[in-house]
Design goal:
single chain; 146 residues; Alpha-D-Glucose-1,6-Bisphosphate, Chain A, domain 4; 3 helices; 7 strands
């Protein structure tokens, strides 16, 4: 049995704006990451930095279908799949699924933490894209070392 973390949320913006909010580092740094070496694009590897962690995260095996899906690897055991669905009211459903880890106690903790992390990603993206609010700003300062 393989574990998966997942989250889903509806964002009141057109699919093209939501897609751009995910692949464009200038937008992503407003609600999720603190830095990126580039835009997410098929075949391109980038490095993400988060404000609350000292580590940098390599984003590899990026596959993009414009306004439909984004997938990448940042943990060699898992694949992140983000899918977008356009609704008749011109809003977008965003689904995040990360899977691949085997069932054991350590990986069960991972699944719970990552499901919460992806829910946070979606909530922060919604707040930023819909209202320009940066929910992550200062939210994880307590996690910084020193």
């Amino acid at each position: 049995m393989r574990l998966e973390s997942k989250a889903i949320l509806q964002i009141q913006k057109p699919i093209s704006e939501v897609f751009e909010g995910i692949v464009n580092p200038e937008k992503m740094t407003k609600y999720f990451i603190s830095g990126s070496t580039g835009r997410l694009d098929t075949g391109m590897d980038v490095i993400w930095k988060f404000p609350e962690f000292d580590e940098k995260f390599s984003i590899t095996e990026v596959k993009i279908e414009t306004n439909r899906s984004i997938s990448f690897v940042w943990d060699p055991e898992t694949v992140v799949n983000i899918t977008l669905e356009n609704l008749p009211d011109n809003s977008t459903i965003v689904r995040v699924n990360e899977n691949g880890k085997e069932l054991n106690e350590e990986n069960l903790k991972w699944a719970l933490e990552n499901s919460g992390g992806w829910a946070n990603f979606l909530a922060c993206m919604k707040a930023y894209l819909e209202y320009g609010i940066q929910l992550r700003k200062g939210a994880f300062d307590f996690m910084r070392k020193g």
